Amino acid sequence: MGIISKRKNKKFNYRPRHFEHDGDGSPFSIEHKFDKFRSTVGDNKSLKGKFKTAWGELRSTSDKNTRFRLFVIIAVLILLFLFIIEFDLSIFYL
C-alpha cells in the first residue's frame, strides 16, 4: 500500500476533441500569472543564481514611495502595539 513506497500520481493526457492547434502553445498549459514580468524565472538553475537575480531586481526597481509607505505602516503598527500594551509615551515628550 502506501507504507513502504509512496503512491505515484496518475497522469492524464487531456486532448480536447475540437481544438485546432495554431502552434502558439496549449491554452491548457498552466503558467504563473507574473512569470513574464519576473527575471528570476528562467535559466537560473541554482539557488544562488536565483538569489542574485532577485537581489539585483530588487535593487534596480526600488521605489521611494514604496519605502516611505512601508515605513509609515510599520510606525503605525508599532504605535498601535504600544497603545494596546498601555506603554507610557510621555517619556518621549519634554
Description:
This protein has 94 residues and is an all-alpha fold. The protein is built from 2 helices and no strands. The chain has helices at 47-60, 64-84. The longest helix has 21 residues, at 64-84.
End-to-end distance: 73 Å
Radius of gyration: 25 Å
- List the helices and strands in order: HH
The total count of helices amounts to: 2
- State the helicity in percent bands: 25-40%
Fraction in beta strands: under 5%
Structural class: mainly alpha
How many distinct folded domains?
A: 1
Q: Report low-confidence residues grouped into runs of 5 or more.
A: none
Let me know the average pLDDT: 77
Give the beta-strand count: 0
Largest sheet: none
Shape: elongated
Organism: Aequorivita ciconiae
Keywords: Membrane, Transmembrane, Transmembrane helix
Transmembrane segments: 68-93
Protein name: Riboflavin synthase subunit beta
Summarize the helices and strands and which ones pair or pack:
Elements lengths: L46 H14 L3 H21 L10
In short:
The chain has helices at residues 47-60, 64-84.
Descriptive terms for the model:
elongated; mainly alpha; 94 residues; single chain
